[in-house]
Amino acid sequence: MAVSSDQTIEELLHPIPLEPLTERPLVSVLIANYNYEKYLPEALDSLIAQTYGNWEAVVCDDGSTDGSRRLIERYAARDARIRYVFQPNGGVSSALNSAYGQSRGEIISLLDADDVFSATKLEKSVAILRNSPSAGLAIHPLTPVSAGCKVIGKQIPAALAHGWVAHEALKSGGTVTGLPPCSGLTFRREVTNLLFPIPVRLRCGSDGYLVRAALMITCVGPVAESLALYRLHGKNITGATRATPANLRKNLADFLAVASAQIEFVRSRYGDAISQRLDPCASFYYRSAGLTYYLLTGLLPPSGAGLNPEQAIQMFPTKPLRLVWRMLLAMPRFLSSPLFTVWQSPYPGKKFIRPLARLAKLKA
Fold first, then answer.
1. For 91-127, what is each residue's pLDDT tens digit?
2. Chosen domain end from 216, 237, 258
3. Which of 15, 174, 287, 289 is at a distance of 20 to 30 A from 315, taking alpha carbons?
4. Who contacts 80 (Cβ-Cβ below 8 Å, separation ≥6)?
5. Where in the sequence is the domain holding 231, given as residue range(s)?
6. Residues 74, 48 contacting (CB under 8 angstroms)
7. Is it the case that residue 3 has pLDDT exceeding 70?
């Protein structure tokens, strides 16, 4: 079916209706665990410490080979609100699907097994969904911490998406800025009933699929304060501190796999008229990651034959930032690559370039 005008898109693309929440809705917290015995106690303890008591946790252990299963059984014996599913390793999407299948709540919250909720996380997430009756997705920032829970950065994202953003997402590759990762996401069940099961081919990026698909069917309700610790360490996907061609190739492939699943979801919901307008290569993430790959290798990424470096630079929000990228691309690679690594990393060497960055009105 052809779409003839923006007015037609407006008529086709709209948030789903939501029923009023009950007085004290049950919140189901889904946890997919694989060999995180070291971190899982802090995650579960943070649930037990919640100021909002009407919750259940469904922990799916995805074939762990460490002591995770015994640990989960001990916590379930200690608190009847904690239930579990044990399965052979199938990936995080499969684990979340299994956990969701056992959940009963009106509200669904995600918690990475290595992250930690603040004590008011569930209380404030329920409140924002109650006070924003059209919002089927509540989000909040997270505070990045090291493996030992030491704060290592400012809260992310710095600003949050809000309201009905589907039209913006349609124009910007299927996503918008201001979306947190897994432990910052809480959904109404009317929304998740349309999103699950997550395609099991997504071995990575399950939370990305859920939030990107949700954007297309519901409004977003933000909570401004950080309500979780976001642990970055060597074993999780986001723990890498250095951009390398290999990491970028993998991240771009994962991003496009999530985008493909989102397109399939939109097609099933709205038909070809809307789904054909989703171009993941037009997103800021794709163009910035592709540009970084080009900077480091001099080659376009394998999945991005149509990437235009100057077009990608134009997506950066400030003139000084665009100027720095042009300068980096103009340098010999043996200079630009290490300079870029220092600029974008949390390494101590950044302290030497911060004064120069401030002079250029950049945030290094």
1. 999 999 999 999 999 999 999 999 999 999 999 999 9
2. 237
3. 15
4. none
5. 9-237
6. no
7. no
